[in-house]
Amino acid sequence: MTDNNLFLQELIATVQTLRSQEGCPWDKRQTSQSLIKYIKSETEELIQGLENADSENICEELGDVLYLVIMLAEISKERGHFQFSDVVQTINEKLIRRHPHVFAGTTYKDEQELADQWKAIKAAEKKKLSI
Question: What's the pTM?
Fold first, then answer.
């Protein structure tokens, strides 16, 4: 776990350096909108790697997607919206909330009931967000 945290911190620091005054001109001028085409491209490359069961390519493409996620979070942080830690916290809370059978001790009798529970939780989340 510690190695993962260290590597992740190093990657975030690398992206911050790339976007800094002394960084890369290409990285500095990127926006959320300009990165859309790269997100599409890298996601498609990841899908191809998965379809081909090419673990070396999957590893590389996951890295490319992670870079883009961190880049988008960094751009958002620069604009005063949210940062990478918010992204991580949000998805972790969502996973825990949507898996009460794992984290809250609820039970289910079959896969259909589990799917129904998932849909109900998701619907409640969406309703709460629209208020």
Answer: 0.88
